[in-house]
Each structure stands twice: as C-alpha cells, then as structure tokens.
Design brief:
Blueprint (H helix, E strand, L loop, with lengths): L2 H12 L4 E2 L2 H4 L16 E3 L4 H14 L3 E4 L18 E4 L6 E5 L4 E5 L4 H10 L2 E2 L12 H6 L7 H4 L6 E7 L5 E4 L13 H4 L8 E8 L1 E2 L3 E9 L5 H11 L4 E8 H11 L11 E9 L6 H14 L3 E6 L3 H17 L6 E2 L2 E3 L5 H15 L4 E5 L6 E7 L6 H5 L2 H14 L15 H7 L2 H14 L12
Parallel strand pairs: 2-4, 3-4
Antiparallel strand pairs: 1-2, 5-6, 6-10, 7-11, 8-9, 8-10, 12-14, 12-15, 13-14, 16-19, 17-19, 18-19
Helix pairs in contact: 1-3, 8-10, 9-11, 12-14
The structure holds flavin-adenine dinucleotide.
The site of flavin-adenine dinucleotide has 36 residues, from strand 3, helix 5 and strand 10.
C-alpha cells in the first residue's frame, strides 16, 4: 500500500475540491456522532459524479486502500468512523446531492446518495407527494447513509423502513464497477434482488451513489394524541384498536416513559401536558391522504373506547399544529437529554410487539438487580416492536466506572433479547458497537452466509473494514 502515491493519484482524479487532506478538513469525519469512536484517514474523497466515484474506487483497488463510506455521520454504531491506522480513505457523497428525477405518474423520485433526507422530503412535498422516511437526524443525514443503515424512524408502522421505500439502487462495487440497478419498476422478479444486499450493509459491500425511492400521496389531515397507558401490557391492545379504527392510517405509536418525560422537562423546560406524569405515555399519530376521511374523529373515538375499556387513563388530542409540535418536542427531548445525563449504554432492540411487556419486565428486573443505581430509559417505536432500551449512569456520579461496564450490561440486555426471540439491532445497525455481540448471538449459518457474500463482492476486505463482520 503506497498512501502517498494514492493521495497524489486521487488528487489528480478529483481535484482540490474533491480530495481533501488538510487535518482541519478531515477532523469532523474522524469521530462519530456520539464521540465514542475516533479514527484517522489518508484523505477525504468527495466525488461529484458516479463516474468519479467509480474511478476513485478503482484507484483504491489498485493501491489496496481501505474505503470508509460516510454520509452525514449521524450513525449511532460507529460504522462511518475509520480505524486508527490512517490507511483508509473516507468517501463522502455530499457533492452528489441532486434530485435527478421526480415522476408523479410512477410515484418515484430518483436521488443521488448525498441528498440530505429533509431535502428529499421537501422535494416530494412540493410535488404534493410524501416521502415518509423521517427521523430526528433528517436535517443532516444523507439518503446514502439511510439506505446503508436501513434506517427506520417514526413512520415505519405504516410505510416500513428504508428498505421498503426503495425500488432501485446504483452502487459502485469494490472493484470499481458500477451496478446500475436504478430501476423505477414496482415489480421485478428477474433474478436475485441485488439492491437488498447493499441496504443495511453499512458500507461493507459497496458505495451507494443513487437510489430510486417510492413516493406516496401527501397527507391532507393528521391527528396526534398523547395518552397515559394504564399498564404497559395494554400497549399492543391499544395499537390494534387504533389501527383498525383509523382504517390502518396509524403512522406513529411511540412509547414515552415517565423518566424520559422528566428529563425532557429538566433539560429543555418542556411542559408536561398530562395532569399527572404517567408511568408510560404513548404518542400516537394518524394521518390520511384523503380530505374526506375524518381522521381526528376516528382517533378520538378509538381513544374514547380505550378509556372505557381501561386501556388508558388521561389523554389529550392536539388541537393545533403548535400543540402537535409540543408533543413531538417531548419525544425529541427524551433523545436529546440522554447525552446531558452522562454515560448511556444504548440498546436498539426489537422483539415481537406482543412480547414487549414481558421483555421490559424481565430485562428491567435483571438490570435493577445487577445495577440498582443505574437508570433505565426505555422509549421508542413500540408499534414496530422497537425499543431504545438504554441504561444511564447513576445520577451525578463519575461516568468512567459505568462506561467500563458496557460489555456486561450489553450482554445482559442482549441475552434477554435473544430469549424473547428479538434482534440486537432494530434500526441503528451493527457498526463497531455491536460486532462482538453479533458474533455471539447470530446463528453460525447466518454468519457464514454473510461472510460468503462479503468475500464474493469484496475479496480484499477493503470496504469498511472492522464493521459488521
Ligand atoms: P453515516 O452515519 O455517515 O453512515 C452510516 C453508515 O452508512 C456507515 O456504515 C457508512 O459507512 C454507511 N454509508 C453512508 N453513506 C453511504 C453510501 N453512500 N454508500 C454506502 N454506505 C454508506 N436511525 C433510525 O433508523 N431511526 C431513527 O429514528 C434514528 N434517529 C436518530 C436520531 C438522531 C438524533 C441521530 C443522531 C441518529 C438517529 N438515527 C436513527 C441513526 C441513523 O442511522 C442515522 O441518522 C442515518 O440513517 C445515517 O445516515 P448518515 O448519512 O448520517 O450516515
């Protein structure tokens, strides 16, 4: 590997705007969002076209240079941070941020991988369409990163995750060849569905350069409620009730715990809308593309029936867009309060929806037994069976000893996940953070198959080394 010669060749190929090496230009790309992982790189490549990206990857193959694809660097598993060797080149797609086409007849949008997620949402809205992928990092994450992590977010219940929203991909393979699978077809059974390999692969199999995504009719009305659950066991019951009553137009069903609401108030001064702080609250949102369907009435009726059935206690429906914003700010406040409370061991787990109450009881009791001073913050996309089952350090204490407990805490939580037939990553991916746990808990046949796919596409093991596998 001749790094200096590679740098010279990459600079000649991409020019000074397309290949950066100054430490101050590289530095934001060398640490992950949470500040857990740090790395070094021989350069930051910013290709401006698919042809440039392909030529760059060919160059890396020639020189044996590892490639770390990076988008908005908002990932939560350390998957976009290079290792400390300084051998790798980081490839960021931010200069490839064009919307190439939007077709309202076919309901598709063709975007380059460096498009910021919110820009795609806005382009869809301008055409009276909806691109439903939505998450708190949407103002800075790139669609390439969303696809590489198979991102989920707050609308998965109705529309599925990034995988479900994708029709086609364009990918530069590790040898520099371009897989043009940018179909706009809604149906295509002509052989293996190759795009699926790259969605959720966390940049280990190739560099995504463009995608064709599905669009949906824009929402014409929505209704949002915050309710106090009488018992966590009622969550799956209420979910079924609300889905049926709204003609399956439920888009979000988010669990907010008392501790999370308290943190949102403490750090951001957010007012508590319910009279009493409940042990568990649900933020429920339904939305419809039909101006004739009274979605607010449908949700209100369902919640009235739930109240009578004893599934919920207190509750309120947002009466204005600003009230709706206040409710969602509570949800975001929980996410954003976490770093302010010190060390937090995050678990992005999924279990079958019906199994959530039992999982929370079992894993919660085990954590309380072994780590009595630590604080469980369990919130998230309960309608998808996806919880952020996070353990915060004891209040006000020194974080360092708690940080060192990560392997034991992770194992405890993940063993309960496995016992409840769940997954150790519902949406944030494996990256560096969960690699050891993947090896411990994934079936040997699944791991062997993953390794065979990796070896077939990237025999030199140069794409995002040290991640996932
Ligand atoms: P990066 O972090 O830059 O990269 C992530 C991975 O994708 C890495 O493996 C990288 O190598 C790979 N990658 C990036 N671009 C490409 C490309 N062009 N080709 C191939 N590989 C590539 N996630 C959810 O699923 N749901 C949520 O609700 C959610 N909420 C979040 C809230 C906050 C505040 C934050 C900070 C993150 C949240 N995330 C959530 C994490 C989520 O994974 C990322 O926000 C997003 O999907 C990653 O996009 P990115 O562009 O930042 O990718």
């Amino acid at each position: 590997m001749d790094s200096a010669a590679f740098r010279q060749a990459a600079l000649a190929l991409l020019g000074p705007k397309g290949f950066l090496t100054a430490p101050e230009e590289l530095s934001p790309s060398l640490t992950d969002w949470r500040g857990l992982y740090h790395g070094k790189a021989c350069g930051l490549a910013l290709p401006a076209s698919t042809a440039e990206a392909a030529a760059l990857v060919k160059l890396t193959a020639e020189f044996g240079i590892p490639v770390v694809p990076q988008g908005g660097n908002t990932g939560l598993s350390g998957a976009a941070t290079p290792d400390m060797s300084g051998d790798a080149v980081i490839v960021n797609m931010r200069r490839m941020n064009r919307i190439r086409a939007l077709d309202t007849a076919n309901d598709t949008i063709l975007v380059e991988a460096g498009c910021i997620l919110s820009a795609i949402q806005e382009a869809a809205a301008a055409a009276d369409r909806l691109f439903p992928l939505s998450l708190t990092a949407e103002g800075s994450c790139q669609i390439g990163g969303n696809l590489a992590t198979n991102a989920g977010g707050i609308n998965v219940l109705k529309f599925g995750n990034a995988r479900a929203l994708t029709l086609g991909l364009e990918v530069v393979l590790p040898d520099g060849s371009v897989l043009d699978a940018l179909t706009t077809l809604h149906k295509d059974n002509s052989g293996y569905d190759l795009k699926q390999l790259f969605i959720g692969a966390e940049g280990t199999l190739g560099l995504i350069t463009a995608a064709t995504l599905k669009l949906f009719p824009a929402f014409k009305a929505r209704s949002t409620a915050l309710v106090a659950l009488s018992d966590l066991a009622q969550a799956p019951v209420l979910l079924g009730r609300c889905r049926a009553a709204t003609a399956d137009q439920l888009i979000s069903f988010e669990l907010l715990p008392r501790f999370g609401l308290e943190l949102a108030q403490k750090h951001f001064g957010l007012r508590q809308p319910l009279e009493q702080l409940p042990a568990w609250a649900l933020l429920i949102e339904a939305a419809t593309p039909s101006a004739d369907f009274d979605i607010a009435l449908a949700l209100e009726r369902a919640l009235g029936e739930a109240l009578e059935a004893g599934e919920i206690g207190d509750g309120l429906l947002a009466e204005s867009e600003s009230q709706r914003g206040d409710l969602w700010r509570l949800r975001e406040g929980i996410v954003n309060a976490q770093p302010r409370e010190g060390v937090c061991h995050k678990h992005d787990i999924a279990v079958p929806v019906a199994g959530i109450p039992a999982f929370v009881a079992d894993a919660g009791a085990a954590l309380a037994r072994d780590y009595p001073a630590a604080r469980l913050l369990c919130f998230g996309h309960v309608g998808d069976g996806n919880l952020h089952f996070n353990l915060l350090q004891p209040a006000g204490g020194d974080g360092a000893p708690f940080q060192s407990l990560a392997p034991a805490i992770n194992q405890l939580v993940h063993d309960h996940v496995a016992a409840h037939k769940g997954s150790i990553s519902a949406e944030h991916g494996i990256g560096q953070l969960r690699r050891t746990e993947l090896r411990r808990l994934k079936s040997p046949v699944a791991l062997q198959t993953m390794r065979a796919i990796k070896a077939a596409l990237d025999p030199q093991g140069r794409f995002n080394p040290g991640k996932v596998l």
